[in-house]
């Protein structure tokens, strides 16, 4: 199998560890290869090899130190791409040659032969399920294997997790502000940081709770629903209804044909223009806009949604839309609704809703008052919150720049730290307590209370007994003896699962479908106490150790 000309490789040992015995597809982006790394990973690999340490068994944790966007939660994403990288990690001869040229001239041929042979057949990967709500210091991934090989995985794995988790968290925060009843569309392709940023953002915004994307390539790659209609350019490209040459439209059931749909639209406009209940607010509307709406309706009678703010929303856009929608209704079609892309979105949506409801009541058109109103225009968390507080009638929000670029925070800041080698715990010390790593191979658990909310995450040494349901457990903060509490969990969930067993013979967790990851993310947020995930002044979630000091008494925050 190939991705962008690159041969996808898997060893017999790794293939055996995949229960189905199939070759796993490579990363979505063909640029994700063993060379997508920092040079010092290869210089360290050579130094490990030169010292005879390259096969020593090492354990690395990937985690982050602080939640993004001033919040108190993060959503983990990027796992699938990491596993695809690891399943296909193999240097080509051309890549080995390039590494040889890039390293100092003292590099020995034996090391190049070593590079030709390495893969991830002896690497084990344990991870939290993608789409899970996670917190600082808790390992998102634990990689075990020959130290040189796992070291080579550091940079690409960090690259695949950092942005994915950041944008998924950003999407989840937008979803929480908008509420579950609203539809959210990701419209960020044109503003994203390059093609890869755009494709990744579409995928991970979907995981974070968005319903659809405008990105056609992402729709094809990941099966994400697509949404989109037309732009202001389409509206302003028309001059008048006289330009419309093909005017006929068959009824929705095919039983009849309207020979002059334009005339039918004009007749409906005359009817609504003088409705007393609307107070005569509809005067002469922009005829070029009306022509654009009619043309779009003729092209998509089952999916007519109009952008109504090119000229004047209330005095032109909405009445023009209503006339076309009523004409479609005559032929058995139902228009979708309108999109607002500028102005006071709360006020305009409310006024448009009143007009729709009046037409339904006065003209007896069932469902007209429930036309979908979509809003866009550089929306972010703050504007969504402000619109919600003002009161509005928007059903769908299209969000782009602030969402996909993670404008409020540039990076998540995940790190990859050695915590054990040859069964000996290792620690990184620092005067900055937040940068002290937590040594040893760990097991991580989430404890839930009687109301179903998660209470605390705890980390223990690998060989310590796991917490039990109904058992009183002392959780403590290693740097503050006064910060300790007893917890009696009603449910205990082990967080780290084996997603790549290497030669261990353990059963590998299957990678779920994208829709299942999205559903898992939504369920995870529902299991969090509301004060932990609220936008303003959220309560910090507790991450602690148990009382046996099995994780070396290092920092848990």
From TrEMBL:
SUPFAM superfamilies assigned: Nicotinate/Quinolinate PRTase C-terminal domain-like (SSF51690), Nicotinate/Quinolinate PRTase N-terminal domain-like (SSF54675)
GO annotation, cellular component aspect: cytosol
Keywords: Glycosyltransferase, Ligase, Magnesium, Manganese, Metal-binding, Phosphoprotein, Pyridine nucleotide biosynthesis, Transferase
EC numbers on record: 6.3.4.21
Reactions that this protein is recorded to catalyse: 5-phospho-alpha-D-ribose 1-diphosphate + nicotinate + ATP + H2O = nicotinate beta-D-ribonucleotide + ADP + phosphate + diphosphate
Enzyme class: ligase
Pathway: Cofactor biosynthesis; NAD(+) biosynthesis; nicotinate D-ribonucleotide from nicotinate: step 1/1
Record PTM text: Transiently phosphorylated on a His residue during the reaction cycle. Phosphorylation strongly increases the affinity for substrates and increases the rate of nicotinate D-ribonucleotide production. Dephosphorylation regenerates the low-affinity form of the enzyme, leading to product release.
CDD domains assigned: NAPRTase_A (cd01570)
Domain (Nicotinate/nicotinamide phosphoribosyltransferase) ranges: 333-435
Cofactor(s) recorded in Swiss-Prot or TrEMBL: Mg(2+); Mn(2+)
GO molecular function: glycosyltransferase activity; metal ion binding; nicotinate phosphoribosyltransferase activity
Domain named Nicotinate phosphoribosyltransferase C-terminal: residues: 441-544
InterPro entries reported for this sequence: Aldolase_TIM (IPR013785), N/Namide_PRibTrfase (IPR041525), NAPRTase_C (IPR041619), NAPRTase_N (IPR040727), Nic_PRibTrfase-Fam (IPR007229), Nic_PRibTrfase_pncB (IPR006405), Nicotinate_pribotase-like_C (IPR036068)
Family: Belongs to the NAPRTase family.
Function, in words: Catalyzes the first step in the biosynthesis of NAD from nicotinic acid, the ATP-dependent synthesis of beta-nicotinate D-ribonucleotide from nicotinate and 5-phospho-D-ribose 1-phosphate. Helps prevent cellular oxidative stress via its role in NAD biosynthesis.
Protein name in UniProt: Nicotinate phosphoribosyltransferase
Species classification: Eukaryota, Viridiplantae, Streptophyta, Embryophyta, Tracheophyta
């Amino acid at each position: 199998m190939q991705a962008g000309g690159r041969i996808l490789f898997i060893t017999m040992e790794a293939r055996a560890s995949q229960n189905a015995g199939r070759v796993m597809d490579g990363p979505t982006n063909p640029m994700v290869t063993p060379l997508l790394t920092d040079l010092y990973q290869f210089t360290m690999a050579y130094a490990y090899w030169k010292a005879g340490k390259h096969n020593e068994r090492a354990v690395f944790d990937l985690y982050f130190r602080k939640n993004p966007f001033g919040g108190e939660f993060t959503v983990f994403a990027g796992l699938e791409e990491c596993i695809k990288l690891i399943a296909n990690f193999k240097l080509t001869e051309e890549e080995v040659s390039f590494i040889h040229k890039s390293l100092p001239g003292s590099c020995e041929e034996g090391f190049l032969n070593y590079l030709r042979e390495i893969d991830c057949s002896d690497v084990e990967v344990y991870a939290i399920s993608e789409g899970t709500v996670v917190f600082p210091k808790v390992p998102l991934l634990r990689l075990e294997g020959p130290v040189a090989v796992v070291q080579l995985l550091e940079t690409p794995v960090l690259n695949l997790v950092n942005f994915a988790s950041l944008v998924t968290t950003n999407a989840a925060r937008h979803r929480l502000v908008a509420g579950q009843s609203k539809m959210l569309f990701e419209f960020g392709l044109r503003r994203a940081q390059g093609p890869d940023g755009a494709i990744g953002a579409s995928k991970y915004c979907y995981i974070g709770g968005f319903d659809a994307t405008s990105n056609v390539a992402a729709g094809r790659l990941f099966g994400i629903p697509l949404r989109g209609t037309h732009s202001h350019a389409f509206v302003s490209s028309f001059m008048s209804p006289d330009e419309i040459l093909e005017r006929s439209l068959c009824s929705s059931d095919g039983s009849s044909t309207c020979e002059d749909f334009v005339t039918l639209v004009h007749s409906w406009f005359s009817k609504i223009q003088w409705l007393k209940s609307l107070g005569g607010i509809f005067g002469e509307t922009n005829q070029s806009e009306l022509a654009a709406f009619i043309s779009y309706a003729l092209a998509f009678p089952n999916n007519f949604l109009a952008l109504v703010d090119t000229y004047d929303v209330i005095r032109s856009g909405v009445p023009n839309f209503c006339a076309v929608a009523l004409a479609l209704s005559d032929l058995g079609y139902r228009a979708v609704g309108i999109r607002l892309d500028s102005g006071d979105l709360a006020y305009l949506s409310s006024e448009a809703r009143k007009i729709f409801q009046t037409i339904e009541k006065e003209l007896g058109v069932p469902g007209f008052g429930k036309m979908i109103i979509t809003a866009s225009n550089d929306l972010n968390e703050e504007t969504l919150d402000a619109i919600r507080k003002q009161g509005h009638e928007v059903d769908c929000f299209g969000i782009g720049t602030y969402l996909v670029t993670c404008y409020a925070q540039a990076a998540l800041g995940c790190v990859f730290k050695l915590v054990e080698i040859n069964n000996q715990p290792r620690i990184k010390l620092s005067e900055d307590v937040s940068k002290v790593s937590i040594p040893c191979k760990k097991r991580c658990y989430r404890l839930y209370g009687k109301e179903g909310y998660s209470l605390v995450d705890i980390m223990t040494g690998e060989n310590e007994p796991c917490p039990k349901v109904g058992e009183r457990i002392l959780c403590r903060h290693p740097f503050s003896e006064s910060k300790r509490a007893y917890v009696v969990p009603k449910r205990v969930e082990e967080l780290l699962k084996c997603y790549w067993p290497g030669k261990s013979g353990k059963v590998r967790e299957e990678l779920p479908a994208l829709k299942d990851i999205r559903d898992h993310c939504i369920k995870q947020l529902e299991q969090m106490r509301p004060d932990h995930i609220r936008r303003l002044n959220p309560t910090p979630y507790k991450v602690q150790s148990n009382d046996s000091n099995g994780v070396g008494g290092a920092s848990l925050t």
